[in-house]
Amino acid sequence: MKFKGFRRPDGRVGIRNHVLVLPCSLCASETARFIASQVPGAVYIPNQGGCALSAADLELTYRVLSGFAANPNVYGTVVVANTCENVQPDELIRRIKEKTNKPVEKVVIRDAGGTIKAAELGVKYASQMSRDASCVEKEDADITELILATECGGSDPTSGLAANPTLGEVSDKIVSLGGTSILSETSELVGTEDILAPRCVNDEVAEKLLGIIKDNEDYFERLGESLRDGNPSAGNKEGGLTTLEEKSLGCIHKAGYSPITEVYAYGEMVDKKGLVVMDTPGQDIASIAAMVAGGAQVVIFTTGRGTPTGNGIVPVIKITGNSETASLMEDNIDYDASGIISGEKTIEETGTELFDILMQVVNGRQSKAESLGFNDMSMARKCNFC
Amino acid sequence: MYTCVVINEKDSVATVTSPVKAGEDIRYRIKGNDFCIKACTDIPLYHKAALKDIKKGEVIYKYGCKIGYALKDIKAGEHVHTSNLDSKMI
């Protein structure tokens, strides 16, 4: 199966054609926003971190920011730095160049002589990139070049019954066509070790998978918290969930039944085909950010209660199995899978309909969050700010 | 109209999509075929009903996967929850 996309000089294919204005830190974020707001087609990433970071978090931040620049939906990047932050622009650009040969420029606010002069330079770079980006024509690409990110949030009993199984159908279809689908949210994998480990293609991948689940549990245990005790919660049980396996399966079923081919660290570049797992937290926005940094061009997000969230670099498609949510949040929900609950549709039917919407969005149709211009951003951290 | 969802044909339980009273029909379909069993207990909304008789100690399946073990014999049409299902075999 083919789709129309923008071929990048590094060989990968984007489904959008953004110029990215990328602040190294929180201190450079407002100047970056100021630059991006002057250039049609430019997006900026609000960066709440980038400074006062532990060594581990600095590494993670470099990985994610360079991953954003390398995401195939991005034509080129203008890096904006204050001057003194932990994330240094030259090091960030070096890491971007390790991942891609796409255009990249640098603006340092202090060196330029303050925000207004930095903005003058930034707008010059970004508008030139915007003109160059407009000359890139869409071409046929094979679906094997597509990376789908799966995510769930604001879950309710319909999530595990309708929305997630529907997305599971789509994920399996992408995988069967030779593409890639990412399952995320490590905290939701707790309790499914016996189910997921045998689904890994070899022992090495299974060990990695069990490793990220254990590391995640150990981390919370060091803080005196347990992911297993009291899970499912009293409220979950009242809602009909009995065991932790059942609760976790409802979540991971959004990745269907395909074998797991690889396990990636947070924000690491995804280079294997098939169903892969990425080690991300259960916070939706931070999980999406990691998969975008990993190279996903599109997100499908299942929800029970509804959520407006969107991402500046990739379209986010929202689906729900709750008919009330679909109607109350019509502005935000792209697909209503509640036909499964009412008995009007089968999971196979809703899967086929959602796949059609996915391909329309891949080929250029805006998702609802995209048409609202939404650009949520959060990045995971291991430690508090230093 | 159907009153429960069976996610995978291997499943031994289904989730009811409207509250069911003891003695009422539970109607569902798998791969285009319609089925019906009679509820032998009340089953609250979004709780599980056994689709077949399950023996004590047997694995219970949902999503085509093991969600736990039967703590006692369970009849088709019975409410399946914390009193008769647990992660561990007890």
Defining key terms:
heterodimer, A: 386 residues, alpha/beta, Rossmann fold, 2 domains, 7-stranded parallel β-sheet, 4-stranded parallel β-sheet, 15 helices, 14 strands, B: 90 residues, mainly beta, Archaeosine Trna-guanine Transglycosylase, Chain: A, domain 4, 4-stranded antiparallel β-sheet, 3-stranded antiparallel β-sheet, 0% helix, 39% strand
What does this structure look like?
- The complex is a heterodimer of chains A (386) and B (90).
- Chain A has 386 residues and is α/β, with parallel strands linked by helices.
- Chain A folds into two domains: 18-135, Rossmann fold (3-Layer(aba) Sandwich); 142-371, no CATH class.
- Helices cover 41% and strands 18% of the residues of chain A.
- Chain A has helices spanning 29-37, 55-70, 89-99, 109-112, 115-134, 157-176, 193-196, 203-222, 234-238, 244-252, 284-293, 323-328, 339-342, 347-362, 368-371, and strands at residues 2-7, 13-14, 18-23, 42-44, 74-81, 104-108, 139-142, 147-153, 180-183, 260-264, 274-278, 298-303, 316-320, 335-336.
- Chain B has 90 residues and is an all-beta fold.
- Chain B has one domain: Roll (Archaeosine Trna-guanine Transglycosylase, Chain: A, domain 4), CATH 2.30.130.
- Chain B has no helices and nine strands.
- A four-stranded antiparallel sheet of chain B has the order 1-2-5-8, with no helix packed on it.
- The mean pLDDT of chain B is 94.
- At the A-B interface, helix 6, helix 10 and helix 13 of A face strand 7 and strand 9 of B.
Number of helices of chain A: 15
Tell me the strand percentage band of chain B: 35-45%
Tell the overall outline of chain A: globular
The percent range for helix content of chain A is 40-55%
Give the largest interface: A-B, 25 and 29 residues
Please tell me how large the radius of gyration of chain A is: 20 Å
Strand order of the largest sheet of chain A: 10-11-9-8-12-13-14
Name of the CATH first level of chain B: Mainly Beta
pLDDT average of chain A, as an integer? 95
